[in-house]
Amino acid sequence: MTTLQILIPTFALIVLGFLLKRHAGFNQGFWSDLEWLIYYILFPALLFGSLARHPLEIQSAAGMIYTGFIFMLGGMALGYLGQRWMRLGEREFASAFQCAFRFNSYIGFAILGGLHGAEGVAVFAILTGFMVPLANVGAVWALARHGNHGLLRELSRNPLVLSTFAGLAWSITGWPLPTMIDTTLGFLGEAALPLGLIAVGAGLRLAGVGRHAPAIAYLTVVKLIAVPAIALGAAMLLGVSGVYLAAALVLAALPTASSAYILAVRMGGDGQIVAALIATHTLAAAITLPLWLLLIG
Asked: Is the pTM of this model over 0.90?
């Protein structure tokens, strides 16, 4: 499949979610319940199932994983170093900081599945398995410093972190998943991606973009240009290629995760600036993602 054949359906579902939210007559309660279902049930099932049903080939994926740590830490460093230039208060910065390095896995799984099929999904799940805990540590750390929230307490309740560690642990044992459990997880995982993309579109909010223009401009450049550039450079130095290179570059180039808004609001942060960043990143990624994918096409 060509890059456009993969990306157009992906972003079409995001547009569909945007239109449904504004014209289909569903109330806010419906969308809140849908986000809860995806975040706490469907996506954890996708993560756990993708990791648990495939043997964990750490040696083959080592270069990709090292690349992931390099660009993730690079995004955190650039986000932190831009604090003064972004002209944000402490609460706003604690909320916006995570948008320098967090990633929307729904879009990533859809792209890797289109590029490399089941192998792409499995490899992306391995990388996601290592990056989700790191991204959540960085995000929760910043918000926990601002509020009265314990880092370990927040991480221990995060469904993506829990499902990732559980999936990795199961994979290490080498045990096969029981057929009925595997089938159930497969059904839930298949629902996660289209509904997740629709929810991304429904959650797009551009209010506050003008008020926070310097911060949004800086973090957009960091997340969609600087972080993928670091990823590509690190991958080349480490000799990463094929599906592993595709997974690393796609994850680095993804827009900020929709769950960043949920985390910011739940931990007493500024939801408006995060929502504006998510919307800006998602719209801008429709342009930047194809360009990055051309480099590995």
From this structure: no
